[in-house]
Amino acid sequence: MPHLIFSVPIEIPYPYCEGDYTFLECFFSESHNALMLVRYKDIYFFLTIQKKDRKFFVKIDKKTRVVPVGIAKKALEICKNFYKDFLLHDNLSKNTLKQQNESPYLISADTFYTYIPDQKTCILEIGFGSGRKILNDASNHKDTFFFGIETHTPSIEQVLRQITLKKLKNVYIIKGDARLIIQSLPYNTLFDKIIVHFPIPWDKQHRWVINEHFITHAQQIIKDSGYLHLRTDDFLYLTESLKSMMYLAQGYWEVFKNKPEDTISKYETRWIKQHKDIYDIFWYPQGAREDNEYKNYNFNFLPHEAKKLYERFSCEHFMPIKKMTDSVLLSAKALYRSKNGSLVIALCMGNKYYPQNTYLIIIHDEEFRAFYCPALLATSYQAHCMLKSLEENI
Ligand SMILES: C[S@@+](CC[C@H](N)C(=O)[O-])C[C@H]1O[C@@H](n2cnc3c(N)ncnc32)[C@H](O)[C@@H]1O
Q1: CATH superfamily, region 103-284
Q2: I need a surface site. Which of 74, 111, 233, 251 has the fewest CB within 10 A?
Q3: For residues 89 and 103, is the Cβ–Cβ distance under 8 A?
Q4: Mean pLDDT of the 93-118 span
């Protein structure tokens, strides 16, 4: 991870502008860690400052990590030059080409559905990794639209760079957890195919992409003639996924062992060398969709709601909060304050089984303003309502 180490806490005169970057404000926790809010064009992100053994480490915040990472590395570069007399160490390498590729084909999870054309074949690949399949398929089928969701930033940067080099105009990439993103899609967003090839099985089972929530939501976004294709080398993943699908969903299934595939991914190459068996499930839900209008959740705060939250959190000592119902979690894990009294609260919220980490910013100026961007999910909205109804000083 790129980072800088200083001998003193860095004190930039906020707001500080350099080129397209504005260092807006710095927020401090009681344990003297800090979050520096930076804007690059219309992208907002944090740099973190952590104190360890009288040294101050400045890093890119993981929760707001921007793509390509070159944007945040450039912000570190500005800090480094600003405070160069106090710099003890840095590991900043020059941005590689893929780290500075600001691609129009990287789209946000919130606007993803607006890019899906009605009258075209649309394919969604989840966890594309090195991207061999999505890039190959998009090169061979120029009339089809491909959407790829991936959590791993270096894989995303690599694929975006390949999209530019190959001059592809039919592939869009979304960064994030596919399990959350597909839940936030309107039910009339429809794909011809959802591809999940070699999802990670060696993690804990609760982190598997294919789970009960995923299956329920996937069947809402597959066309009547469409299907989901799971390909895996993990027998437990195969059998558990098939069991859950058959228990929860409609349609019919085809299951294969060692069926050849046109594009052999990096993972598959490794398993073939080890003579492992490979399994496929093709699931055709056949129009088991329910009608549902777009879930237009509103995560805004009125000034009096922002003021109430401000009063709730601005007490002298921050006490973490954890609230949970059967399905929803809201946890306030840390509080940061700026010198002019604004707050940042580190939250973990939404679906209890895979909650999202996010920051709530409460600005204290002539009136109170509060904002954050949770995923557009029913469970985020329930957590949002819990947050608004928090009693004071508990
Ligand atoms: C084992 S790799 C397989 C990559 C590729 N499909 C292949 O066949 O080579 C699994 C990929 O899924 C991604 N991944 C894991 N969980 C995910 C999630 N919840 N949403 C999106 N991508 C995810 C990982 O970052 C990783 O790149």
Answers
A1: Vaccinia Virus protein VP39 (3.40.50.150)
A2: 111
A3: no
A4: 85
